[in-house]
Design brief:
Shape: globular
CATH class of the largest domain: Alpha Beta
CATH architecture of the largest domain: 3-Layer(aba) Sandwich
Number of helices: 11
CATH superfamily of the largest domain: Response regulator
Order of helices and strands: EHEHEHEHEHEHHHHHH
Oligomer: single chain
Helix content: 40-55%
CATH topology of the largest domain: Rossmann fold
Strand content: 5-15%
Length: 216
Amino acid sequence: MEKIKVFIVDDHPIFKKGLTAQLKEFNFVELIGVAENGKEFLEKIEINMPDIVIMDIKMPVMNGIEATQIAIKKYPALKVIALSMFGDEEYLQQMLDAGAKGFLLKNIEKDDLEKAIKAVTQDKNYFSEELITIITSKFVNKPSSSSTKEVMKISDREKEVLQLICEGYTNVEIGNKLCISPRTVDGHRANLLDKIGSKNSIGLVTYAIKNKLVNI
């Protein structure tokens, strides 16, 4: 079986060393490169292209958001897992908009890292449970943009789609599971985004958990 090529982008030497050690324990992964910032990363992948990039958000010279935007625009098949420190959660939406597929806190455990790599390899989203808890808690005491009445307007089918979105499935996979077309799934997704008042998947996940619409 061909190994998954992984690239690390982070400016903290101690963290990089620890992450490298974790990756070397996975027999399905090959670490092909490291970089200290987005600019160095973009230069290096011209020579050796990874399957997955584990990308810090805050870095000197070029941050992870800009680097992700540029890399995915040029290489659409590239998968990016964003790394966040406590307190950096506000940048996650920007990383999603840039094209990141996974999100991990920097205190990641080996099992969480393995799950994230395998999920994004299959073109699924991955949010660490700890990160979801932190993001959700920030919304609990804030007024919701949607009323209880609007929550009740979410149909059973939309709830099914929402559950699978939260589990990280793509439109095609959701369509296969529910025996509907990807276009229909996209329609349900658009309706959910409109009802909930969100622009992307992380907003859907947060809203769904807060209102106990899904089980994760």
